Amino acid sequence: MSPTQTVFHRALLDGSAPIPDGLSDGQGRAAGRRFDVYRNNVAVSLTEALEVGFPAIRSLIGPENFKKVAGLYLRQHPPSTPMIMQYGTEFPDFLERFAPLSHLRYLGDVARLEQAQREAYHAADRAPVEADRLERLSPDLMAQARLELAPALRVLRSPWPVHGIWRYACDGGAPKPSAVAEDVLITRPEFDPVVQLLPPGGAVFVTALLSAQSLSDAVDAALGEAQDFDLAGMLSLLLTGRAITAIFPPKEQAT
Amino acid sequence: MLDAVSHFPTLPAGPGVGYKPQHFTAILDDPRPVEWLEIHAENYMGDGGRPLAQLRHLAEQFPISVHGVGLSIGGEGRLDPDHLSRLRYLCDWLQPASFSEHLAWSTHDSHFLNDLLPLPYTGETLTRVADHIDALQETIGRKMLLENPSSYLAFDESTYSETEFLTEVARRTGCGLLLDVNNVFVSATNLDLDPRAYIDAFPLAQVGEIHLGGHDEDHDDHGAPLLIDSHGREVADPVWALLDHTLARAGARPLLIEWDSDVPDWHVLAAEAQRAANALQQVPA
Q1: Residue in B70, B157, B220 nearest the CB of A22
Q2: Would an 8 Å CB–CB cutoff place A42 in contact with chain B?
Q3: What does each C-alpha distance from A4 to A75, B113, B120 come to in angstroms?
Q4: Putative DNA-binding domain: from which residue to which, for each copy (chain A) (predicted)?
Q5: How many CB atoms lie within 10 A of CB B61?
Q6: Who has the most CB within 10 Å: A6, A218, B247, B249?
Q7: How far is CA B176 from CA A92, A206, B142, B184, B199, in A?
Q8: Is residue B255 within 8 Å of B239, Cβ to Cβ?
Q9: Domain extents in chain B
Q10: How confident is the model at residue A1 (pLDDT cuts 50, 70, 90)?
Q11: Minimum distance, in Å, between the CA of residue B98 and any CA atom of chain A
């Protein structure tokens, strides 16, 4: 009998499992290390997928360590879809729980940043509003307006200097990260995601907009966290990121 | 739904290459001698951004072959309905000149293993593969091409040769075949078969496309040669010779160069495509 795909599958992911029976070299000799070609293909291709998705993590822990961590991850979390561009959704949590790396507690958030970048890269296209649309609204209308943000936009809040660490990992010439909590905004002005540090109150503001709150409510929320919240600067960040895709005046709010 | 962008109903019997995003500008600048492009379906299943923008642009100028690498047609379980829907969506908006997939499995227990895994050739697996191809062809509303795998081992249980199996799948389902000549050479070397006899037994009339790619050389436990289908270098000379043997019997067909790892500069890939063009020119009209 041939091995079932259940047996084949288990032996592929477990290098210590015996090679399934019923496989040969075509001349009656046991398949032996020929089976390892498939084991190797699976491990190498999935490791490469993680290397493509998480270059900053690879830089932070080193290429050899990354291969070892990826080898453990891919056996515990094989992809659940053939869309390999999405592979690694559980990688940030895995890194946080991975005891040998527990001294690098920020790794999970750096991986979340990289995951968000990848999501932004493949997100749906949506044309931005013209930059002066907001300015042309009366102050009253503007306060009550709701903003629709681009499908590629992502916000990440972290207790770690996640932006500084990520930038340092990508570019050794970048300044050393300082020990502060950082929030990050990802926009996609055209095809390449742009990662930026959010000013104080920025993450609260954008999160409020994403939950369909009015501009004035979003500003109130931001001021609640940062008294010096700079609305003009924040709107300019969103506009240059081509991240505002519609402005709904109050009368449409009910629809 | 995006508008259908392609106006090329079939692949030309000329050289094509597997498309890599780093070649986008070079291809638009001067694609010669390449006449058509092949994409891996799964790389174009995102919602937007650069991959889809590039594909829409290329599809206006080149016939596109969509090559799936993740459907798991040889899988024991049923085909993933979500993945079938994604393939249908891609084929609907792109209207590619061809769709192809592999005689292999890659998904089991909802784990996708990202490799083309082998199956025994028996009456039972024949029925399963034929049923899966029927389901796919019904979903995408067109005939597909099924590709022969590269093999590193054999199943004791097999009762069909690979060529018999593919002949019968094509007969039952009406699908065409994608003949990967490098895979034939790799499998024949690994399983001690005669590659020319394989070609001679292959139902060449059903072949809608030919693949060529590079392989690596290794050895098994007994020191016997073990070739690995790596797609990371030039096509080997004996594979070009096997291609000539194939074209002399089959006539000219759409001929693809696959180069998926250690992807070279465009001029290196274009030179391989030129070698394919030369091989096609020697085929009697």
Answers
A1: B157
A2: yes
A3: 19, 15, 10
A4: 4-95
A5: 14
A6: A218
A7: 43, 52, 11, 17, 16
A8: no
A9: 15-220+239-259+268-281
A10: low
A11: 20
Contact A123 B48 (CB under 8 A): yes
CB contact under 8 A, A80 and B110: yes
Q: Distance between CA A159 and CA A247 in Å, rounded?
A: 32
Name residues 171-200 of chain A within 8 A of B (Cβ): 188, 191-192
Cβ-Cβ contacts under 8 Å for B224 (sequence gap 6 or more): A25, B192
Which CATH number does B15-220+239-259+268-281 carry?
3.20.20.150
Q: Which of B124, B21, B139 is nearest to B91 (CA)?
A: B139
Q: What is the pLDDT of residues B88-111, one digit of tens each?
A: 999 999 999 999 999 999 999 899
* Cβ neighbours around B2 below 10 Å, total: 12
Q: Does B108 touch chain A (CB under 8 A)?
A: yes
Beta bridge partners of A246: A148
Kindly determine whether residue B114 and residue A23, on different chains, have CB atoms separated by under 8 Å: no
Contact B69 A82 (CB under 8 A): yes
Chain B residues with CB-CB distance to A31 below 8 A: 152-154
Q: What share of chain B is helix, strand, coil (3-state, %, to 5)?
A: 40, 20, 40
Task: Give pLDDT tens digits for A210-253.
Answer: 999 999 999 999 999 999 999 999 999 999 999 999 999 876 54
> What is each CA distance from A245 to A148, A152, A215, B2, in whole angstroms?
5, 11, 14, 19
The shortest CB-CB distance from A122 to any of B46, B106, B109 is to B46
Q: For A190, which residue in chain B has the nearest alpha carbon?
A: B49
Test mutation, B45, B66, B89, B114, chain A, max A CBs within 10 A: B114
B128 touches A at CB < 8 Å: no
Considering only alpha carbons, which residue of chain B is nearest residue A41?
B115
Is B25 an interface residue toward A (CB < 8 Å)?
no
What are the phi and psi torsion angles at B66 (to 5°)?
A: -95, 120
Instruction: Give alpha helix (H) positions in chain A.
Output: 5-13, 34-53, 55-61, 63-76, 91-97, 107-122, 139-144, 162-170, 202-210, 215-225, 231-240
List, in sequence order, the alpha helices (H) in A98-253.
107-122, 139-144, 162-170, 202-210, 215-225, 231-240
In this complex, which of A9, A22, A191 lies closest to B155 when CB atoms are compared? Answer: A22
Q: The pTM is what?
A: 0.95
Q: Alpha-carbon distance B60 to B50, whole Å?
A: 16
The CB-based long-range contact list for B220-223 (8 Å cut-off, 24+ gap) reads: B220/A25, B220/A32, B220/A33, B220/A34, B221/A32, B221/A33, B222/A25, B222/A29
Tokens 């019923």 appear where?
A: A22
CA distance A187 to chain B (A): 12
Give residue-wise pLDDT tens across range A43-101.
999 999 999 999 999 999 999 999 999 999 999 999 999 999 999 999 999 999 999 99
